[in-house]
């Protein structure tokens, strides 16, 4: 097991080297290089409708060792902790298995958070478009209507409407402006793409903007309801996948109870370590494949 332990140590050290930030001297040199080659900041008056972070420079004021460096350090600590704990409990194979399961869990958590953020942003934009359509039906000019609707909208939707108002007032390309917003807020990408195309269609063919905006709002509402129905219908399949993925655990416990000592085999023999890694890999692949099947149905 000495060779296997050495291999696990090399894997963990390599992971730490990949995710840990460079030394402070290297960071200072990189900061000077970026500062010397960075483009000039654009005129704030021309881009003040854009979301924070688009008008020049990174978020957070460009402070040294920003959030990215903190996330890298945290990732390194988690990788070392999870791999080390798994290695202590179940040998090198246990360390690799723990890293695989932790990676799957983290990936699914991020996907769930992105899905919830996308649904919330879509719902906020749908409400804002309802207010925009009402303003347009009341006779307000498009730019004025967008500004008024943005007053009571949630932050992401308000950003979209302000970009729409500024671009309309200046006679710019609405689709390009909305793509700039969606680049900063990926959760709005699909919704702003629909809105931009519909707005261009209305301007090109003289269709009433109120009807076009309301049609986009109805489409967004229908998309939200469809996603909710699909997730409700696939809840059974997702639960079955989770149950099947967890079946090896009671199997090992039952083997321990009857005296077969499967834990001893998995943690102290070469064949057991190989089977532990292989089994964990198959379980992880099954969970990811199930999630992919569901996401392909739900995601627009």
Describe the structure.
- With 300 residues, the protein is mostly helical.
- The chain has a domain at 119-231.
- Helices cover 81% and strands 0% of the residues.
- It is elongated, with a radius of gyration of 26 Å.
- The two termini are 49 Å apart.
- Mean pLDDT is 75; it is low at 1-65.
SSE blueprint:
Elements: H1 2-19, H2 24-37, H3 44-47, H4 67-137, H5 142-151, H6 155-170, H7 174-184, H8 189-205, H9 209-233, H10 235-246, H11 248-257, H12 262-268, H13 270-298
Helix pairs in contact: 1-4, 4-5, 4-6, 4-9, 4-12, 4-13, 5-6, 6-7, 7-8, 8-9, 10-13, 12-13
Q: Find the structural class using helix and strand composition.
A: mainly alpha
Low-confidence parts: 1-65
Number of helices: 13
What is the total tally of β strands? 0
- Overall shape: it is elongated
From the alpha-carbon coordinates, what is the Rg to the nearest angstrom? 26 Å
Query: How far from one another are the termini?
Result: 49 Å
Tell me the fraction of residues in β-strands, as a range: under 5%
Relative helix content: over 70%
Query: Would you list the SSEs in sequence order as H and E?
Result: HHHHHHHHHHHHH
Mean pLDDT: 75
What about the largest sheet? none
